[in-house]
Amino acid sequence: MAVKKLCESYSKSFRGEVQRWGCMKQTGVSLRYMMEFGSRPTEKNLLISAQFLHKELPIRIARRAIELESLPYGLSEKPAVLEVRDWYLDSFRDLRSFPEIKDKNDELEFTQMIKMIKVRHNNVVPTMALGVQQLKKGMNPKIVYEDLDEIHQFLDRFYMSRIGIRMLIGQHVELHNPNPAPDCVGYIHTKMSPVEVARSASEDARSICLREYGSAPDISMYGDPNFTFPYVPTHLHLMVFELVKNSLRAVQERYMDSDKVAPHVRIVVADGIEDVTIKVSDEGGGIRRSGLPKIFTYLYSTAKNPLDEQSDLGSAGGLTMAGYGYGLPISRLYARYFGGDLQIISMEGYGELIF
After folding, report:
1. What average pLDDT does the structure give for the chain?
2. What is the mean pLDDT of residues 311-327?
3. Measuring CA to CA, which residue among 296, 280, 282 is closest to residue 198?
4. Principal place where this protein is found (predicted)?
5. What mean pLDDT comes out for the span 289-303?
C-alpha cells in the first residue's frame, strides 16, 4: 500500500488548515433538538442544516485526522490506520473546497457530497480494528493490553466521534426522503418499539450463528411490543445484535459437543420511569474474573483473531461471529451517545447478564 506521512504527502498550507480547524470548538446536538428541528424539513430548515454541517463536519473530521497522525506504540504507521487517516483527510478537503451554501441547489449538491463522504467511511470500524490487531500481532505477548490506556482512550474518542459524524450526516440526508416511514424524523423513530428492534437484531445474529456453526441456540424474548419511545433504531439494532451474537457464540461453543440441549438466550425489555433497560442473559459459561477488566478494551477478544486466517484489508467488510475485539466497547459507546450505558455481570461457570 502506497501511503505516506501527512507531512510528506500534503502541502504545508493544507496541513495548516487541518490544524486550524482541528483547534475549533465543536457543537453538540441533542436527540431532542434533532427530532424537533427535523420535524419541519422545510427548504429553509434544510438550508440551515446544510450550512451548519458545512462548518461543523470539518472541525470534527480534522480533529480525528490529527489524532490519527500521533498515536502511540506505532499504531499510526499501521497500513490500515494510514488508510483510515487518508479517508478523513480526503473528506476534510472535500468539505473545505465546497463553496458557501446559499440556496436550494447548493444545499442539494452539498447533501450529495456528504452522502458520498458517509459511504467513504463505511468501513472505518473494521479497518481500524484490523490496524489495532496488526499492532497487537507485533507486540510482546507479555504486554497487559488493558494497561495501554492511551490507545483505549483514543479509540473511545475516535469511535464516539464517528457515531456523531454519521448521525449528523445521516439525519440531514434522510430528511430529504420524500416518503419517510410513519413516525420517523430522519434517522429517529419517534415511536420505536425496542422489543421489535431487539427481535429483528437477534434474528440477524442467530442467522450468522447458523451460518458459522450449522446450528444456533433458540432465543426467548420478553417485553411489551406495544411499548415505544423515541430513539434511533439502527443504533439499538447494532447494540442488541452484538450482544446477542456474543451470547449465541458462547452458548453454542459450550454445548456443541454436549448431549444436552443448548439453553435459550433470553432477552428482557423493561420500561422504567427514567430508563429503558434491555437485558441479554445466557448460560455460555461466563467470563473469568481476571478477564472482566479486558472486555471493554479494543485489544481483547475471547475468539480467534481473524488476522490469523486472513490479513487482506480488502476483506474488512466481512461479517464474522467474533474476533476483532470491538463489539462490546463499540456497543457501549452507542449506548452512551444518547446518555445510556452498557454493563456486564458474569458468573464464571454459568453465563452472563448484559444490561
Report:
1. 87
2. 54
3. 280
4. mitochondrion
5. 72
Residue in 100, 93, 99 with CA at minimum distance from that of residue 120: 93
Pairing of strands 351-354, 219-222: unpaired
What confidence score (pLDDT) does residue 302 get? 55
Question: What is the predicted pLDDT for the residue at 291?
Answer: 74
How many angstroms separate the CA atoms of 145 and 298, rounded? 9
Give bridge partners of residue 347 from the DSSP assignment: 351
Give residue for cell 487541518: 18
What is the structure's pLDDT at 9? Answer: 67
- Burial pattern 90-125, b for ≥16 Cβ within 10 A else e, equals ebbbbbbebeebeeeebbeebbebbeebbeebebbb
Distance from chain centroid for Cα 95: 23
Q: In what order do the strands lie in the sheet with 184-185?
A: 184-185, 188-192, 229-231
- CA 271 to CA 273: how far, in whole Å? 7
Please give the model's pTM, rounded to 2 decimal places. Answer: 0.86
Q: Beta-strand (E) ranges in the chain?
A: 184-185, 188-192, 219-222, 229-231, 265-271, 276-281, 344-347, 351-354
Q: Tell me the DSSP string of 74-109.
A: GGGGSHHHHHHHHHHHHHHHHHHHSPP--SHHHHHH
Residue 132 above 90 pLDDT? Answer: no
What is the C-alpha separation between 352 and 297, in angstroms, rounded? Answer: 18
Cell numbers that stand for 113 in this block: 457530497
Q: Across the beta sheet with 344-347, what order do the strands follow?
A: 219-222, 265-271, 276-281, 351-354, 344-347
The radius of gyration of the chain's CA atoms, rounded to the nearest angstrom, is 21
Q: How far apart are the first and last CA of the chain?
A: 41
Pinpoint the alpha helices (H) of 10-74. 12-22, 31-38, 43-68
Residues contacting 288, CB < 8 A, separation 6+:
348
Q: Hey, how many other C-beta atoms are within 10 angstroms of the C-beta on 327?
A: 22
Q: Give, as one character, the DSSP assignment of residue 291.
A: G
Residue whose cell numbers read 419517534: 190
Question: Do residues 113 and 94 lie in contact, with contact meaning Cβ atoms separated by under 8 Å?
Answer: yes
